[in-house]
Hints:
9 strands, 2 domains, Rossmann fold, Arc Repressor Mutant, subunit A
Amino acid sequence: MRKTDKIRIPQETIRRLALYLRSLRKLSQQNLTIVSSSQITNHLNVTSDQFRKDLSYFGSLGKPGVGYRVDELIEHLEKILGVDSERRIILAGVGKLGSALLAYPGFLNFNFRIVAAFDNDPVKIGKKREGIRIEDISRMREVVSRFGVRLAILAVPAESAQSVAEKLVECGIRGILNFAPVNLDLSQKVYVLDVDMGTELMALTYFSRRVLL
Amino acid sequence: MRKTDKIRIPQETIRRLALYLRSLRKLSQQNLTIVSSSQITNHLNVTSDQFRKDLSYFGSLGKPGVGYRVDELIEHLEKILGVDSERRIILAGVGKLGSALLAYPGFLNFNFRIVAAFDNDPVKIGKKREGIRIEDISRMREVVSRFGVRLAILAVPAESAQSVAEKLVECGIRGILNFAPVNLDLSQKVYVLDVDMGTELMALTYFSRRVLL
């Protein structure tokens, strides 16, 4: 988590908005046009109060006792999150995890498209995985600039994570989804979101033990 | 996020405790014995106030102006999180993501050991990946009981996530780290922690745009 004075909305609110959006799209596929907050938050274990509070940061929508227009709220959330148009991302590191991420179908659902992947292994460079060409890291600046990319997924080994992350920032990347289990030390110009399986599992251990009580 | 009356500690506090633990282990490797809160939270973008508040849920350690004993705080956090002894986990779904997770070195660092993996593909069943035998899902109950497993990683396709999750709960699993991009509808006896790349990327998009302002 990077905090700057400019970021005042809690990170958890933004994560929940993304979950609401996922839920709304599902309701839309079921041809629902007006829904209640509890239909949106069903299975998310978020209270209706929390839902309304999260939305209130961005001006309110929906009428009390009437509900929310599904298409309107989807559009609203997509604009807030910045996913109303395609977002291009690059992947750094095409090892086992990187390869799995290239094949992950969930990205396209949210308008994210991986436009290039990078690795330093000469055996991989020039080959294609899931239709995406693996490039040498030395070509990163050119690719980032050509595609106007601002987001990157970092899936390199822990030892090289810091140096590759610095390279990403140098090339103009402003948001990094970091899968390497290290705390990156970067400038305030980039936002880092850590995805750490070990940390997640520790949180899970804690909460699953409480469930047993 | 599942909430029950018994869970009063914010999920974010628990996640941060896991990050503090990771940070402390690193400091311990550097042979430091007494550290300040800012040394622990360095690179985590957590304020010292937040750090103290997080710890205060579990009784305080450390002396003002003196700092924290690294080994003592590590032990304290490990106990809180329940990672002071080995935790066995199973993996459901050995596709691309599941295979990458089997190879993920970060689990062992935190005392997590994947003891078995399950798939429904006859071609995979009976084979070994990363030294772990892939079993038929029908053998799940037996394996869970034999190894005393309470935690599972769910990495099956979205379509089968709900039914496999139900099977996990039936077999005695009490915590699920869910990588399938669906909202699981399960009993209150199990704690589900969702890891959704699409959601993470949307949060990242939002925050990285703020950084640009």
